[in-house]
Design a protein that fits this description.
With 288 residues, the chain is of the alpha/beta class. Helix content is 40%, strand content 14%. The radius of gyration is 18 Å and the shape is globular.
């Protein structure tokens, strides 16, 4: 069932956001928890396959491994789209900008394409971190700003706090977790979602539906899952060290899921299998 589809993303028609998604091509290569030679090999292959959006974070402790790969890859800097994140223990006047400058040095670049708050602060007071994020943008350390792991309520507070486009809220998003409340807030606030844990760390493959649909569409089960995410209006971050998976995870634009099959997958969200929960001590109270 090959074909093309126009993806409807949950953001307002703001030029900065259009550029963001055009450059990101809806698909980014995530780098957690990779380090060292394993990371270098996987990232090199991802770039060869066609990935141009790379997502890292200070907390991953791999920016210094990524920098040399990007410098040596032969791809023009303007063609790359690099995202990093500031951890919530650096949300102070003294540490925020210094931490971003260290990321830039490690990545061997002079400006990030997107800078995210990695988590909301444990006390839920998002206004100060947002102020620091915007100051980093105004200082020329990043082109765009975003957040991650924000709840619906936090998204609404964010757009009340600033008119600056927030280009993404990176969250756990996969077919085994109901994120309808967050999707609704994304539409209402114009802050689009991007996914991590996109295949639920393999849990999705325990569902026979994905094997059935993979056979029907002549693709892999992972491609079915990732295509579902894209058609929900959510951009995807995927990570793999296996060449065949890296290639397959990128090759998602040659088919689309029918409305019937989308609805069948939607039913699985009621499983509510949240992977990133209270093992992260600063996790907010989630919408569900």
């Amino acid at each position: 069932m090959a074909g093309s589809v126009t993806l409807i993303f949950h953001f307002k028609s703001i030029p900065e956001l259009d550029v963001y998604f055009q450059q990101q091509h809806e698909r980014a290569f995530g780098t957690f928890p990779l380090k060292g030679e394993t990371l270098c090999n996987a990232l090199t292959l991802a770039l060869d396959v066609g990935y141009r959006a790379i997502v890292t974070a200070q907390m991953y402790q791999n920016e210094a491994d990524i920098g040399p790969v990007l410098s040596a890859c032969g791809i023009a800097r303007d063609d790359l789209f690099i995202t990093s994140k500031v951890p919530n223990d650096k949300f102070t006047d003294a540490e925020f900008v210094v931490s971003v400058e260290k990321s830039l040095e490690a990545l061997q670049i002079d400006k990030l394409d997107v800078l995210l708050l990695h988590w909301p602060p444990a006390n839920g007071a998002i206004e100060k971190p947002l102020e620091l994020l915007l100051q980093a943008q105004q200082a020329g350390l990043c082109s765009h700003v975003g957040v991650s792991n924000f709840t619906a309520e936090m998204l609404h507070r964010t757009v009340k706090f600033t008119d600056t486009p927030i280009v993404t809220n990176q969250v756990e998003f996969h077919p085994l977790l109901n994120q309808d409340t967050l999707l609704k807030a994304a539409t209402e606030t114009g802050i689009p979602l991007s996914s991590y844990c996109s295949v639920a760390r393999g849990e999705v493959f325990k569902q026979p539906l994905f094997t059935e649909l993979a056979d029907n569409y002549n693709v892999t089960a992972a491609q079915i899952v990732l295509r579902w995410i894209l058609q929900k209006g959510v951009s995807i971050n995927t990570m793999s060290t296996k060449a065949e998976n890296i290639r397959a995870n990128f090759a998602l634009l040659h088919f689309c899921l029918s409305h019937v099959d989308m609805a069948r997958i939607d039913q699985l969200t009621h499983t509510n299998c949240r992977l990133v929960d209270k093992q992260v001590p600063w996790a907010p109270k989630w919408d569900i």
